[in-house]
Design a protein that fits this description.
Layout: H1 3-6, H2 15-43, H3 51-56, E1 60-62, E2 70-76, H4 80-98, E3 103-109, H5 121-135, H6 138-150, H7 158-167, H8 172-179, H9 184-202, E4 210-213, E5 216-217, H10 226-233
Parallel strand pairs: 2-3
Antiparallel strand pairs: 1-3, 2-4, 4-5
Helix pairs in contact: 4-6, 5-6, 5-7, 5-8, 5-9, 7-8
Organism: Gordonia spumicola
Protein name: Thioredoxin-like fold domain-containing protein
Pfam family, one: Thioredoxin_4
Length: about 240
C-alpha cells in the first residue's frame, strides 16, 4: 500500500527543494557581492595625499617650519604597536625636532575606540592633545603623549587624563578643557580627515602606527629609530 493510501491527508512537499533553491540563490548573491566588493576596491582610485589637509588636521605639530624634512605620524592611543613605536622611536623623534632636523605632525586617530572599555578612549586622548595644542608647548605634549600610551590599558577617565596633563605642566585652561572633554568631537572630525589622507597614501589601508614622508609610507618604523635617520638623510621625493 502506498503512503498516499495510508494517510489521506498526506500531500507531496516541495518545500525542501524551494528552500534549497532559495539558499543557493542567496549564496550566489553573497558571492557576487563579495566579488563585486573586491573588484570595486581593487579598481577604486585614490587621489594624491593633500598636504594642506594633513597640516590642518594634525593634532599637534612640533618642530620649526624651516626644518628640512616634515613627517606625518599616525597613531591611536589604544594601539599597542603605537605604544611600542613610542618606546622605540619617541626619544629619537624629540631629539631630531630639537636639533631642527625634522618637523613632525602628529595625527591621533580613533578607529580603536570600540576596543577600549569606555568605547571612546582614543577620541578622548586625541581631544586632550588638542587642548594642549591650544594652550601649551611641545614639552607638555610630549610628556602627556607618553603618559597616555603608558596608561592606555587602564582606560583613564577625562579627570584622570586631566591630572596627567597637570603633572606634565599643563596650564589650568588645558586641565579644564580635558576634564570637560571640550575638544573630543573636534578631535573625531580631525581624525576622520587624517584617516582619509592616510587611506589615500596606502591605497585603502588605515593602520597605526604609520609614518608618511612627503605623502609616502616610511618602512621599518617598528624596528627602532633607524628609519628616522634614513628619512632625514634621504627624504623621499614628493
Amino acid at each position: 500500500m502506498s503512503k498516499n493510501s495510508e494517510n489521506k491527508d498526506y500531500e507531496p512537499r516541495a518545500t525542501s527543494s524551494r528552500v534549497s533553491y532559495a539558499l543557493i540563490a542567496v549564496g550566489v548573491v553573497v558571492v557576487a557581492l563579495v566579488v563585486g566588493g573586491i573588484l570595486w576596491q581593487s579598481n577604486k582610485s585614490y587621489p594624491p595625499v593633500d598636504d594642506k589637509v594633513l597640516a590642518e588636521n594634525a593634532s599637534f605639530i612640533v618642530g620649526d617650519r624651516t626644518a628640512p624634512e616634515t613627517i606625518d605620524v599616525f597613531e591611536d592611543f589604544h594601539c599597542p604597536h603605537c605604544k611600542e613605536f613610542e618606546a622605540k622611536s619617541g626619544a629619537a623623534i624629540q631629539a631630531a625636532v630639537v636639533a631642527g632636523k625634522v618637523r613632525v605632525r602628529y595625527h591621533l586617530l580613533n578607529f580603536l575606540d570600540k576596543e577600549s572599555d569606555s568605547g571612546d578612549f582614543s577620541s578622548r586622548g586625541a581631544g586632550a592633545v588638542l587642548c594642549v595644542a591650544r594652550n601649551d608647548n611641545r614639552d607638555v605634549f610630549w610628556k602627556l603623549h607618553s603618559q597616555l600610551f603608558a596608561k592606555s590599558g587602564d582606560d583613564p577617565s577625562n579627570a584622570d587624563i586631566a591630572e596627567l596633563a597637570r603633572a606634565a605642566g599643563a596650564s589650568p585652561a588645558t586641565v579644564t578643557c580635558i576634564a570637560d572633554g571640550k575638544l573630543v568631537d573636534e578631535a573625531r572630525s580631525m581624525a576622520d580627515a587624517s584617516s582619509g589622507q592616510l587611506e589615500n597614501s596606502t591605497k585603502g589601508s588605515v593602520v597605526t602606527p604609520t609614518v608618511l614622508s612627503a605623502g609616502t609610507v616610511v618602512d621599518g618604523i617598528t624596528d627602532g629609530p633607524g628609519w628616522l635617520d634614513d628619512v632625514i638623510a634621504n627624504p623621499p621625493k614628493s
